[in-house]
C-alpha cells in the first residue's frame, strides 16, 4: 500500500505536481583558498632561505569588481558535486591534482554578490610550490601569489546572558609585485551554556573582491588551528625535506618561533628519515626526511 500525504497524494503524484519555480533558488559557486609555502630571496647562500606563506589570487577581468583581486573559483556545474567543482577549479588554476583539499564553510550572506543570490561553498587547498603552473582563467586578467600576513590587532570580551561574546580583530595583509591589499576582519565568537557560534565580519577592505577577506581569514584560522594537531603542514612540503625546513613551515603558518628540540619531538611520529642528504646547500649536509604514511585498517 502506497503512503499518501495530508493532501491524499502519493510521492509520485506529489513530484508530478511539484513546481520548483515557486521557490527562489540560489546559484552555487566554489571559491578556492589555495595556500603554498615558498622561499624568500636570500642574498647569503650560506643562510637557509626564509619561508613565506602565500595565497593565490586572480585579478578580475570583468564586472563586478573589475580590476579587484579575488580568490579563484567558479560556478558548480549541474553534473558535479561541490567537491568535484573545487578539484576542477584547482587543477585549472594551478595545474595540480590529488592534493589536500577540504571544505571550509558555506558563505551565504544576502548581498555578498551584487549579481544575484550566490552562495559560496569555500575550500582550502595546500599545494607544493615546486609543482605549480599558475595561469589566469577565462574571466581573469592575471593570476599572482600574494604573501600572507594575518596579525591580531585586539580582542574584546563582552558578557551576555549565560555566556559571552569574544571579538578578535585582525589585519589581513596580502602583498605581491602586483598589489598590496589590506583588510580588517573580525572573528566573533558567541558562547553560551547551550551553543557556540563563530562568524566573520569585514570592518574595512582595500582591493579584495566580494567577501573574500572573510574566506581567507577563515582559511588561515583553520590552517593554524589544525597544524598543531595533525600532519596538515606536510601537505605543503616536497617529497624530501629537512626537519629545519619543516620547522620553518610550521613557524610561518603559526607566525611564531618554535623551540627546536620540542618541535622535533612533536613531529617524530609524522616523518621518517631517508638515506638521502642535502647537496650544494652551502653548509653541512642535512639528512632528508619524508612524510610517514600510516596503514589504513
Key words describing this protein structure:
297 residues; alpha+beta; Nucleoside Triphosphate Pyrophosphohydrolase; Arc Repressor Mutant, subunit A; ten-stranded mixed beta sheet; two-stranded antiparallel sheet; 19% helix
Structural description of this entry:
The strands form two sheets. Strands 1, 2, 3, 4, 5, 6, 7, 8, 9 and 10 form a ten-stranded mixed sheet that branches. The chain folds into two domains: 27-41 and 48-227, Nucleoside Triphosphate Pyrophosphohydrolase, CATH 3.90.79; 232-291, Winged helix-like DNA-binding domain superfamily/Winged helix DNA-binding domain (Arc Repressor Mutant, subunit A, Orthogonal Bundle), CATH 1.10.10. The protein is built from five helices and twelve strands. It is an alpha+beta fold. It starts with 10 loop residues before the first helix and ends in a 6-residue tail after the last strand. The chain has helices at 11-17, 82-94, 212-227, 243-254, 260-267, and strands spanning 27-39, 51-60, 69-70, 73-75, 100-107, 118-126, 140-160, 163-175, 180-192, 196-206, 271-277, 287-291. The longest helix is centred in the C-terminal third of the chain and has 16 residues, at 212-227. Helix content is 19%, strand content 39%. The relative contact order is 0.14. The model has no long low-confidence stretch (mean pLDDT 90).
What topology emerges from the helices and strands here?
Elements: H1 11-17, E1 27-39, E2 51-60, E3 69-70, E4 73-75, H2 82-94, E5 100-107, E6 118-126, E7 140-160, E8 163-175, E9 180-192, E10 196-206, H3 212-227, H4 243-254, H5 260-267, E11 271-277, E12 287-291
Parallel strand pairs: 1-6
Antiparallel strand pairs: 1-2, 1-4, 2-3, 2-7, 5-6, 7-8, 8-9, 9-10, 11-12
Amino acid at each position: 500500500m502506497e503512503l499518501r500525504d495530508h493532501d491524499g497524494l502519493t510521492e509520485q503524484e506529489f513530484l508530478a505536481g511539484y513546481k520548483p519555480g515557486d521557490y527562489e533558488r540560489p546559484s552555487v559557486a566554489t571559491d578556492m583558498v589555495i595556500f603554498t609555502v615558498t622561499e624568500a630571496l636570500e642574498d647569503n647562500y650560506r643562510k637557509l632561505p626564509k619561508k613565506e606563506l602565500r595565497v593565490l589570487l586572480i585579478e578580475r577581468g570583468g564586472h563586478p569588481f573589475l580590476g579587484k583581486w579575488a580568490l579563484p573559483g567558479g560556478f558548480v556545474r549541474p553534473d558535479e558535486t561541490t567537491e568535484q567543482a573545487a578539484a576542477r577549479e584547482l587543477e585549472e588554476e594551478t595545474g595540480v591534482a590529488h592534493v589536500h583539499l577540504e571544505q571550509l564553510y558555506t558563505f551565504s550572506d544576502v548581498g555578498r554578490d551584487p549579481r544575484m543570490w550566490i552562495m559560496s561553498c569555500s575550500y582550502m587547498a595546500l599545494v607544493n610550490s615546486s609543482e605549480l603552473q599558475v595561469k589566469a582563467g577565462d574571466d581573469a586578467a592575471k593570476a599572482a601569489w600574494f604573501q600572507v600576513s594575518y596579525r591580531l590587532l585586539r580582542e574584546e570580551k563582552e558578557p551576555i546572558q549565560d555566556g559571552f561574546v569574544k571579538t578578535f580583530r585582525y589585519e589581513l595583509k596580502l602583498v605581491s609585485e602586483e598589489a598590496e591589499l589590506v583588510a580588517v576582519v573580525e572573528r566573533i565568537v558567541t558562547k553560551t551554556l547551550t551553543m557556540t557560534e563563530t562568524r566573520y565580519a569585514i570592518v574595512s577592505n582595500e582591493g579584495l573582491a566580494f567577501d573574500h577577506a572573510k574566506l581567507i581569514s577563515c582559511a588561515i584560522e583553520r590552517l593554524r588551528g589544525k597544524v598543531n594537531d595533525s600532519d596538515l603542514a606536510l601537505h605543503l612540503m616536497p617529497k624530501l625535506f629537512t626537519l629545519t625546513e619543516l620547522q620553518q613551515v610550521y613557524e610561518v603558518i603559526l607566525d611564531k618561533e618554535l623551540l627546536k628540540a620540542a618541535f622535533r619531538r612533536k613531529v617524530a611520529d609524522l616523518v621518517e628519515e631517508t638515506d638521502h642528504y642535502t647537496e650544494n646547500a652551502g653548509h653541512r649536509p642535512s639528512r632528508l626526511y619524508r612524510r610517514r604514511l600510516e596503514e589504513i585498517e
